[in-house]
Amino acid sequence: MNEWCELDKKHFIHPTSSIQQQQEKGPKVIMESGEGIYLKDIHGKTYMDAMSSLWNVHIGHGREELAIAAAEQMKTLAFSSAFSTFSHKPGIKLAEKIASLAPENLNAVFFTSGGSESNDTAIKLVHHYWRIQNRPNRRKIIALKRSYHGVAAASTSATGIPEFWDMAGTTIEGFSHAASTYRSNTESAISALREKIEAEGPETVGAFIAEPVQGAGGVLIPPEGYFKEIRNLCDEYGILFVADEVITGFGRTGRMFGIENWNTVPDMITFAKGVTSGYAPLGGVLVSDAIHEVFKLKSKGTLFHGFTYSGHPTAAAVALKNLDIIESEGLVDHSHRMGKKLLKGFKKLKDEINIVGDVRAVGLLGAVELVKNSETNEKFPQDLKVAPRVIEALHERGVICRAVTYEGIDIICFAPPLIINEGQIDELLTKLEESILEVK
Ligand code: PLP
User: Fold this and answer.
1) Residues 300-356: pLDDT tens digits?
2) Where would I find the beta strands (DSSP E) of 42-185?
3) Per DSSP, what are the bridge partners of residue 406?
4) Is the CB of 212 under 6 A from ligand 1?
5) What is the pLDDT of residues 168-180, one digit of tens each?
6) Which atom of ligand 1 is closest in space to residue 119's alpha carbon?
7) What CA–CA distances, in Å, run from 208 to 77, 152, 186, 232?
8) Reported CATH class of domain 65-328
9) 117: how many CB neighbours lie within 10 A of its CB?
10) 3-state secondary structure of 206
11) Residue 125 to residue 299: CA distance in whole angstroms
12) Is the pTM of this model over 0.95?
């Protein structure tokens, strides 16, 4: 046990982790540097970061351009307020840039420091929107089971993974969850949502929030036509549709925004992660012109919502440079092409290894399920810990992925940096195959 481990155990409470395990074993890896799709730990071991760390390092590690953009902005104006009547150039430029990248009619941005703040902000903006239109009873928010929207007050309540509610002690009243699209077709998923809206009382529902692809729930890709029907259903009941693009934004799914894969335009988009590729904390909420118009006409007095770091100039400068790289290097199309190759490789594994069940990917967001019987989708007993053992075997081979075990279903998730090349995808697939065969 080296001194870093001891100091870590003593002083560092890690996010989303087991404190007991940390005390017993200390951190498994202490990273020191990163370059491209690879990370290096303090012992010099190299890892392929096949999760883009937390689904966020789109342009890869160690990009000097971003360090320069941050340093230049820090030297000029590291921070200044965007509250009240103050503004600054990086914030203005970034709002304009994101509006230009977003689907039609989404042209105004409220900045935050990350995904949880973005979803809490979106939910507050939904309340605000209905309140100023004299519809304060439209306070309820419907999300999906197995969704992940973050860990702030409202985003925890919107999250559809109950373990997160226990930590909050209580959830906010007015949140409920409809069946996810997992192993479902559009018709039954939509009728489940319709039933939920009817049960809640359509006149009391303010918004429906969903990730275009449910990430932390196990990379759940919706069936064809689902989001078109969601749009229709929300319009039918006059409910706002918020797309949580915290994972799917900025090229992850082979389109600039994930929802574009299904030709649907939401009323709000929340984003974070890939907007800066993790080089600085920044997120935000894009709102439609129609909502913005209502705000402009009817929002009297102060909007009592804002973070010290809303639109942070240095984070904004970093985001601008990151988006510039995503565009100039054609990373959105590249993600689409590499995603196809990744999916082809997953399908080959499915054909060759009998414990590989469902496989899926959209752009560079993918998953492989491991099952006892791929014909019947029978799960492995939970105590076998199949997915965690595959992750461990991958780790030994220097690949970082994430295991999701949900209701006993073993899922291995993948979200490599958008700069991954064909050879590196082959390397990933080979090591995945070896790891599955080792555990099988
Ligand atoms: N929404 C989604 C879809 C996410 O995956 C996450 C984080 O993983 C969040 C929101 C929360 O973002 P943050 O961790 O930046 O608060």
Assistant:
1) 989 999 999 999 999 999 999 999 999 999 999 999 999 999 999 999 999 999 999
2) 46-49, 106-112, 140-144, 175-178
3) 409
4) no
5) 887 889 999 999 9
6) 10
7) 39, 18, 16, 12
8) alpha beta
9) 26
10) strand
11) 11
12) yes
Q: What ligand 1 atom has the least distance to the C-alpha of 214?
A: 3
| 246 touches ligand 1 (CB under 6 Å) | yes
- Residue ranges of domains in the chain: 36-59+330-439, 65-328
CA of 137 to the centre of ligand 1 (A): 28
Q: Is 215 in the pocket of ligand 1 (CB under 6 A)?
A: yes
Q: Is 245 in the pocket of ligand 1 (CB under 6 A)?
A: no
Atom of ligand 1 nearest to the CA of 273: 15
State how far Cα 380 lies from the chain centre: 27
Domain 36-59+330-439 is found in CATH 3.90.1150.10: yes
8 A C-beta contact, residue 95 and residue 107:
no
Decide: 164 in ligand 1 pocket, CB within 6 A. Answer: no
Residue 433 DSSP class: H
Which two tokens mark 183?
């192993």
d(CA 415, CA 312): 27
Quick check: CB of 359 below 6 Å from ligand 1?
no
